[in-house]
Amino acid sequence: MVTERALVPRRGSTILMGIVVALLKIFSIGGVVLPPMIAVFMEALAVELTTTAGGVNRLSAAIGGILAEMWTLVQAFVAPLLFGVGMLNIYHMVVSSGSQLLGIALADATAILLVLIVLHGVVGAVAGLVGWRFSVTTKRLLSR
After folding, report:
1. Cα gap 68→85, rounded to integer Å
2. Are 40 and 72 in contact (CB under 8 A)?
3. DSSP 8-state class, residue 27
4. Model pTM?
5. Residue 49 burial by CB count (10 A; 0-12/13-18/19+): exposed, middle or buried?
6. Could you report the per-residue pLDDT of 79-100, keeping only the tens digit for each?
7. Cα-atom radius of gyration of the chain, to the nearest Å?
8. How many whole angstroms separate alpha carbon 33 and alpha carbon 25?
9. Would you say 5 and 57 are in contact if contact means Cβ atoms under 8 Å apart?
10. DSSP conformation letters of 73-125
11. Can you give the residue range of the structural domain that contains 51?
12. Dihedral sign, CA of 110, 71, 60, 1?
C-alpha cells in the first residue's frame, strides 16, 4: 500500500485501492467473508491517513506499516465481538495462542501481549519501509 501511494500520490488513492481489493475478495474461495474485507479496508485507511498527514517518506511508511499490521491484532479482538463472541473469550484465545507461539507461560499474559504488540510493530515497520524502498527503486527505473 505504501508503494501504491508513492507511485500514485493522490489523496484517496490508497482508500480506493483498499476498496477494490476488498471487493475482489468476493471472487476468492468462500465468497463474501467480511473479516478479511474489513481488514484490507482498515489497513488501507491506516496507510492513507499516515501518508496524507506525513507525506510519502520513510517515517510515514514505517508508521503506516505499523498501524496496518497492528490492525491484525486489533481485529482479533474486534471481529469476534461483532460476530457474538465475548471479550473474555477473545482475550483468552489471543493469550493462549501467544503463549503457545512464544513458549511463555499462560500466567504471563501481560508479557505475551507486549511481545505480540512489539512483533506486530516490527513486522509492520519493516513492511512499510520495504514498500517505500520498492517505490523509490521503481520510480528510478521508470525515469530512465
Report:
1. 24
2. no
3. G
4. 0.80
5. middle
6. 766 666 666 777 777 788 888 8
7. 17
8. 8
9. no
10. HHHHHHHHHHTT--HHHHHHHHHHHHHHHHT--TT-HHHHHHHHHHHHHHHHH
11. 2-142
12. positive
